[in-house]
Every structure is written in C-alpha cells, then in structure tokens.
Write a structure and sequence with these properties.
It is globular, with a radius of gyration of 15 Å. With 87 residues, the protein is mainly alpha-helical. Helix 1 packs across helix 2. It contains four helices and no strands. It has a single domain, classed as 3-Layer(aba) Sandwich (Rossmann fold).
C-alpha cells in the first residue's frame, strides 16, 4: 500500500542518501519484506530491485506522507482486471 511503500522510501533515503521516485518505493518495500523473510528463515538470498528515477519532482508526495496527509490507496484485484481489459 501507499503508506508502507513511502515508509520504505524514507528508510531507503535515510540509509542510502537517495530519494527514490514513489514508483520505486513499492519495489523497495517488497525488497525489505523479502530480506526480512529470508532473515527469519535463516536463508541467504541475493535480492535485486530496480531503482528508477528520483523523487525530486515528487517531493510534494513525500511532504504529504511526512505530514500524515497521504491517502492510503491500493487497487483491488477487480480494478486491476478492468484496467488490463480496457483498450
């Protein structure tokens, strides 16, 4: 969801010094989840993700997140299906 992905993006920015584009935040969040899962299972994994763009033109979205004003939105399976069926 949006809030989890922005939380991951903030963590990444604070750790790596790069503000990721919001689209990349979803990949970062998934990477963190996979890394934590591997840690819990005691398995070693190489986990890759794609960091595309930068968040500099999306600073207003980060501002909304940090102010607690970002709306938590996720698409339903039905919405995704409709989108894929549209021409």
């Amino acid at each position: 969801d949006q809030l989890d992905s922005f939380e991951a993006g903030i963590l990444f920015a604070r750790t790596e010094g790069i503000v990721p584009a919001p689209e990349s935040n979803h990949a970062i969040a998934a990477t963190i989840r996979e890394a934590l899962k591997a840690k819990e299972e005691g398995t070693k994994k190489t986990i890759l993700f794609n960091l595309s763009g930068h968040g500099l033109i999306d600073m207003s979205a980060y501002d909304q997140y940090l102010a607690g004003d970002l709306i938590n939105y996720s698409l339903s399976d039905e919405d995704i299906k409709k989108s894929l069926e549209a021409e």
